[in-house]
Design the sequence.
């Protein structure tokens, strides 16, 4: 019985992390590992993302 | 990356599990529609509406949306999307379809589909239900999907850019002005909804004000304490939010109530100052964290509402079709069913604003072309479902109460005895004691003339939730629902002001390049001030209007939104013809034709009607004549109020006319292109050429077996490639 429940919970967690953009950091680490480059700190990475958001605000609709 | 050729569309789609399932869905839908159509004066369960909607959506998605995707648009999964070709990890970013669905839905859904159906409930539940469902299937979802598709084929160009390039400069400029002005109206009307919900409500003011420190806390947490831990901080934020709602219930006992009982004028000032500050603060401080909160509230409450409806199975109190639908004398807004039901419902059936989101941001993130069906069409079906839920919530309330809440203060007099009498003249009944008791049940001072839709919806939601989940929490649920609406209206105000500021800076930047620099403070501040001043003025007009703000401004909002949809659908028709698909032009064409018929009729009536309740200019001259003769006309109580009405009707009438003219400019400049395109069998467009795609991803919500296998094969090939690369 725990199988499907656990899977659903894991799926939800995955979806939430993806939707909020939290998982971008993991993707970035993966990419650094693949390319064998030194990753920047998480703080710097998130600043970078915030700076981009600063210029690309999306309208929320009615 | 490895090249796996995608199978042809026919094979890629799931073979229907069994035709029997679809026959059953169709039968359920047909029975629900039949019950809705035939029941008169009996107890009708709200679930008939719910299931009529769900089965219609399922059939439309399965058959019509699929037909549009594969036959009409001819989505081509061998073609690389902008996200794949131009991938930069920032704007252009291949995104999982289910995640992008969430993003897109969060961006298109807001207070519009909640408010419109509540107001339209004055005409009964049937007109609203029919239009929300057929409108979304044949117009709204079609528009969102086609605009998304064409924008995707043009590297995610915006609506304005596409109109300029495909229709012409005049049309482009008209569209740009229309978009900007419509945004101002939308912000003003949404803010008006919040003001009306919070005025004289210390509990509401307390909880909503606390969202600002909560969002700031989240912002600082993410910036300095634990960068990037979004789920964690959102969970903390939601808990704080719930505490803020519960805490509001104790405001009365702490003596804060007096200070937090704000008049509408004070709230306007507060919102304007807030809007200005929010739009110039760095986004990480306020806007981003608030967006996380409002997105989760949005998705959470909608899910909760669906569950609540299923458990509570409320009975509709509203009539199927009220007399107001036919005589046009309703107190909530004036005008007959045709065309005003279509204008009022707006966002839940067809929303021009969505075209701004379906072009630009979302298409840059789509992984495979065929996913526009799920994200564009499916996302809009979900929004329509929100509208249906709102319509149900408004229709399960006692009708006497509904009209007492939604009639302007000039009519109800603002106190129970007069309101009960006014409701009686409408042909409904509620006693003054019942009106007071209803307000007490949710711990508000009064519910009379709390126009704007939010209090009605919140009351309906609180009824449904108290019945579904028990526990005598009516007051909590009411304020929970108010919070839910206010939260994403404020998010829309923040983000909208900021987007308006960018648009203004960009436009002025054409003549004065430095002004376009979004980080140059003088430009940012002055442009923000202009945008805030514009919507702030309209908001103030709405709040102080002696005739009642919502019934004056909401039609303007609805018509402008529908006119924007006309611009978007005109673009769709133009591009269909340019691509040589004249055979299929009826697909966006029926939406466009119906939209133009309703909005142009409504615009005509709002401008030229000789009924002063409908025609802005007739209203103006009525009050002007009275003023010239030195007399006062109700509901105005002073010469200033008379002058105010005159100014407001003039401004509204002028704006109304301007929107209609701007839309006609776009449509009329497109017609010669249509003729040319039909004669030539197609014209060159700005579509980017085909580049082969190497990505493998499923098309629909659920991946088929073949799709799963294809994804697995591609992933393992990728791994092998990476491993081979690593060995070198």
Sequence:
């Amino acid at each position: 019985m725990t199988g499907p429940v656990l899977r659903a919970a894991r799926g939800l967690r995955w979806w939430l992390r993806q939707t909020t953009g939290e998982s971008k950091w993991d993707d970035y680490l993966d990419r650094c590992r693949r390319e064998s480059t030194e990753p920047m700190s998480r703080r710097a990475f998130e600043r970078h993302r915030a700076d981009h958001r600063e210029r690309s605000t999306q309208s929320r609709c009615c | 990356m490895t090249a796996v050729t995608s199978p042809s569309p026919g094979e890629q789609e799931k073979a229907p599990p069994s035709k029997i399932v679809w026959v059953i869905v169709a039968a359920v839908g047909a029975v629900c529609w039949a019950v809705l159509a035939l029941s008169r004066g009996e107890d009708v369960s709200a679930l008939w509406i719910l299931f009529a909607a769900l089965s219609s959506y399922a059939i439309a998605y399965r058959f019509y949306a699929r037909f549009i995707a594969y036959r009409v648009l001819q989505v081509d999964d061998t073609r690389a999307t902008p996200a794949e070709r131009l991938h930069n990890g920032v704007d252009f970013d291949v995104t999982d379809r289910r995640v992008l669905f969430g993003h897109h839905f969060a961006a298109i859904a807001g207070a519009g589909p909640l408010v419109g159906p509540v107001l339209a409930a004055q005409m009964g539940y049937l007109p609203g239900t029919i239009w929300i469902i057929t409108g979304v299937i044949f117009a709204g979802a079609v528009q969102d999907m086609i605009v998304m598709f064409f924008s995707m084929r043009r590297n995610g160009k915006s609506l304005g850019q596409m109109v300029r390039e495909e229709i012409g400069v005049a049309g482009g400029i008209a569209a740009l002005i229309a978009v900007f002005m419509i945004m101002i109206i939308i912000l003003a009307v949404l803010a008006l909804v919040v003001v009306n919900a919070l005025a004289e409500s210390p509990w509401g003011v307390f909880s909503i004000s606390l969202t600002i420190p909560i969002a700031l806390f989240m912002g600082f947490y993410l910036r300095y304490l634990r960068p990037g831990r979004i789920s964690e901080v959102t969970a903390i934020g939601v808990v704080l939010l719930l505490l803020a709602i519960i805490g509001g219930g104790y405001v009365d006992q702490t003596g804060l109530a007096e200070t937090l009982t704000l008049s509408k004028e004070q709230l306007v000032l507060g919102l304007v100052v807030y809007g200005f500050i929010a739009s110039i603060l760095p986004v990480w401080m306020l806007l981003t964290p608030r967006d996380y909160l409002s997105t989760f509230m949005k998705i959470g409450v909608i899910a909760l509402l669906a569950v609540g409806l299923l458990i509570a199975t409320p009975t509709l109190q509203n009539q199927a079709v009220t007399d107001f639908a036919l005589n046009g004398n309703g107190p909530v807004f004036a005008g007959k069913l045709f065309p005003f039901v279509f204008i009022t419902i707006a966002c839940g059936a067809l929303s021009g604003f969505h075209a701004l989101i379906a072009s630009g941001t979302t298409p840059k993130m789509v992984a495979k072309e065929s996913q526009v069906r799920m994200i564009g069409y499916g996302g809009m079906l979900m929004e329509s479902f929100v509208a249906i839920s709102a319509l149900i919530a408004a229709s399960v309330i006692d009708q006497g109460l509904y009209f007492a809440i939604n009639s302007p203060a000039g009519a109800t007099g603002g106190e129970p005895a007069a309101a009960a009498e006014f409701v009686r003249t409408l042909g409904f009944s509620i006693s003054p004691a019942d009106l007071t008791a209803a307000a007490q049940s949710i711990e508000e001072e009064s519910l009379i003339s709390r126009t704007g839709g939010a209090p009605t919806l919140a009351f309906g939601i609180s009824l449904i939730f108290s019945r579904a989940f028990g526990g005598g929490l009516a007051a909590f649920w009411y304020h929970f629902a108010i919070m839910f609406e206010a939260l994403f209206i404020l998010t829309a105000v923040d983000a909208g002001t900021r987007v308006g500021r960018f648009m203004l800076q960009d436009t002025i930047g054409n003549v004065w390049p430095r002004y376009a620099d979004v980080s140059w403070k003088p430009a940012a501040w002055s442009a923000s001030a202009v945008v805030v001043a514009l919507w702030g003025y309209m908001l103030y007009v709405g709040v102080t209007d002696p005739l009642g703000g919502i019934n004056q401004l909401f039609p303007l909002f609805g018509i402008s939104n529908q006119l924007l949809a006309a611009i978007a659908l005109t673009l769709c028709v133009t591009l269909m013809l340019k691509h040589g698909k004249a055979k299929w032009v009826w697909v966006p064409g029926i939406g466009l034709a119906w939209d133009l018929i309703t909005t142009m009729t409504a615009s005509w009536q709002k401008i030229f009607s000789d009924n002063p309740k409908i025609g802005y200019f007739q209203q103006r001259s009525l009050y002007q004549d009275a003023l010239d003769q030195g007399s006062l006309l109700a509901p105005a109580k002073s010469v200033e109020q008379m002058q105010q009405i005159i100014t407001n009707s003039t401004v509204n009438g002028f704006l109304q006319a301007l929107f209609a003219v701007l839309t006609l400019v776009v449509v009329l400049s497109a017609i010669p292109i249509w003729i040319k395109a039909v004669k030539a069998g197609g014209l060159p467009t700005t579509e980017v050429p085909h580049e082969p795609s190497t990505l493998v991803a499923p098309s629909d919500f659920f991946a088929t077996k073949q799709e799963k296998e294809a994804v697995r094969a591609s992933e393992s090939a990728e791994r092998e490639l990476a491993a081979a690369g690593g060995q070198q």
About this structure: The helical segments of chain A are 2-20, 24-35, 42-55. Chain A touches chain B at residues 13, 15-22, 25, 34, 42-43, 45-47, 50, 52-62 (CB under 8 Å). Chain A has three helices and no strands. Residues 2-20 of chain A form the longest helix (19 residues).
